[in-house]
Amino acid sequence: MSRQAHLIAFVFLAVCSVVHAQWEMESSGTTADLRGIDNVGGGVAWASGTNGTVLRTEDGGYLWQACAVPPGAEHLVFRGVQAFDANTAIVMSSGKGDLSRLYKTTDGCHTWKLVFTNPDKDGFWDAVIFSRPSFGTLIGDPVHKHFPIYFTANGGETWQRMDDKKVYSTGESIFAASNSSLVVDPDRPKIYFVTGGESATAVEVDLDSNLPICKHCESLGYSATGLASGKTAGAFSLAWDGNAKLAHFVAVGGDYEKPESAQETASFWTDDHRGNFRWKSAGAPPHGYRSAVAYDAATKTWITVGPNGTDVSTDDGKNWRAVHPDPAMHEAPDADRDWNALSLPFVVGPHGRIGKLNAKALTQNQSK
Question: Which pTM was predicted?
Answer without folding.
Answer: 0.89
